[in-house]
Amino acid sequence: MTTFSDLGLAESLLRAVAAEGYETPTAIQAAAIPHGLAGEDVLGIAQTGTGKTAAFVLPMLQRLAADGRKPEPRTCRALILAPTRELAAQILDCIRAYGRFLKLSSTLVVGGVKAGPQIKALTPGVDILVATPGRLLDHMGEGVVRIDTARVVVLDEADQMLDLGFFPAIRRIMAKTPKTRQTQLFSATMPEAIRALAADFLKAPKEVRATPVSKPVERIAQRVIETAAEDKRAVLTDILRNEAQGRTIVFTRTKHGADRVAKHLAQAGLPAAAIHGNKSQNQRIRALEAFKSAETRILVATDIAARGIDVDGVEHVVNFELPNVPEVYVHRIGRTARAGANGIAISLCDPMERKLLRDIERLIGKTLLQASPAPSNGLPRPGKPEGSKTAPTRRRRRKHSPRRVSDAA
Ligand code: AMP
User: Fold this and answer.
1) Which protein residues are within 6 Å of ligand 1, measured from CB?
2) Which of 37, 77, 316, 354 has its CA 20 to 30 A from that of 272?
3) Which backbone phi and psi does 195 adopt, to 5 degrees?
4) For the chain, give me the number of helices (H) and strands (E)?
5) Distance, CA 251 to ligand 1 centroid (Å)?
């Protein structure tokens, strides 16, 4: 089995990963780190939960430490772009954890918080800058930071940046980076638009992938409960009281939905934290901290707000509403069964969502629900246990085109 030292990592990084409790590299790390260390461009197909952050952060740290230069004032030596504030903050945490034995500086540039402290942090120059695109462009426009010094550039969760409409901003940012840079692009999915972006910005990239997105982690038991839309709240309350009694994430499709569900749960005596794009940065941080510290065991989240959130010990994921895009289902349920644990994913499906469920079943190659009518007594009926293969004869061939989630942030 490959070890971290087989990958060519320096001693200070080996100590840091050991301190994190990592014993062996994950698949994406084993595949990507040698290319990263060799200074090659990398196109990584990996969702969150696969260890992708270390896959690009470890080689970056090693290369920056090895050349030993100091950043010039108002410049950075490496740049990581991420779609959301939460993800950017999490990447920064990883940089600091993995780089704890190195003397490299790092800082965060994200929207929704005051610019002053960011400007102050950028003034002397920084080794690694982690940023969301909008705020970075603001700072660049004001002359606060230059990025033509960035030797390494990472675009993380590129598919999410595409969904959020960041591609024009990314193109403007990339135009200011040096041609000689090393570029790494990571994305859970690889639609044509991302391939095109990669073709523009990566030179002879090495393509590496973690478990394909269409194969959810084997350790997650998946179940569907058929219910009328108006009964969903009662069914959810029942699940949270009787079955999902540990740390649970409830996903809704919209911001308003998240608020409504959280309110309903509070009224039902099940306090829940809600996290979505309408909340202020501080509210989001507080909600996440409460969830991480187990002060609140239930987190209600929209997909974009939850993107990249990494909390161990999530026992259940409940899909209060099914996502419009089947791949999002795989991301959602991947929040459980982390770090070798088992997990349970329960999805509530009303009659209007049957079509979405079929798209999901086609993607994961598994039937989650038997195609028989819902019982007339109105009680939810648990879905067929997982493991049964989708019967091809029942599949209706339908051209699938991914829909955009409009109110998802
Ligand atoms: P990521 O996909 O980068 O969001 O990482 C998901 C989780 O896996 C994080 O909690 C990491 O701390 C953890 N992790 C990353 N690499 C390893 C590893 N080699 N062994 C065990 N856990 C890891």
Assistant:
1) 22, 25-26, 29, 48-54, 310, 339
2) 354
3) -55, -40
4) 15, 14
5) 22
Per-block mean pLDDT, blocks of 10 residues, the chain (409 long): 92 95 88 97 88 96 95 98 94 97 97 96 98 98 98 96 93 98 94 93 94 62 94 96 93 89 95 79 81 89 72 89 86 76 89 92 81 43 37 33 33
**Which of these, 117, 50, 34, 48, lies nearest to 86 by C-alpha position?**
48
Helix (H) or strand (E) holding 348: strand 343-349
Q: Give the pLDDT score at 359.
A: 87
Looking up residue 304, the CATH number of its domain turns out to be: 3.40.50.300
> Which positions ≥6 away from 335 have C-beta within 8 Å?
49, 249, 306, 309, 311, 314, 317, 343
> Quick one: which of 50, 322, 289, 271 has its CA closest to 332?
322
- Using only C-alpha atoms, the chain has a radius of gyration, in whole angstroms, of 22
Q: Indicate whether 379 belongs to any domain.
A: no
For ligand 1, mutation pick of 22, 84, 309 (most atoms within 8 Å of CB) = 22
Residue nearest to atom 1 of ligand 1 (CA): 51
- For residues 259 and 187, membership in a common domain is answered with no
**226 and 183 in one domain?**
no
Same-domain check for residues 94 and 184:
yes
Nearest CA to ligand 1 atom 11: 51
Which protein residue's CA is at the shortest distance from atom 18 of ligand 1?
A: 22
From the list 84, 31, 112, 20, the residue with the least C-alpha distance to 303 is: 84
pTM: 0.61
pLDDT, residue 336, reads: 83
CA 47 to centroid of ligand 1, rounded, Å = 11
For ligand 1, atom 13, the nearest C-alpha belongs to: 51
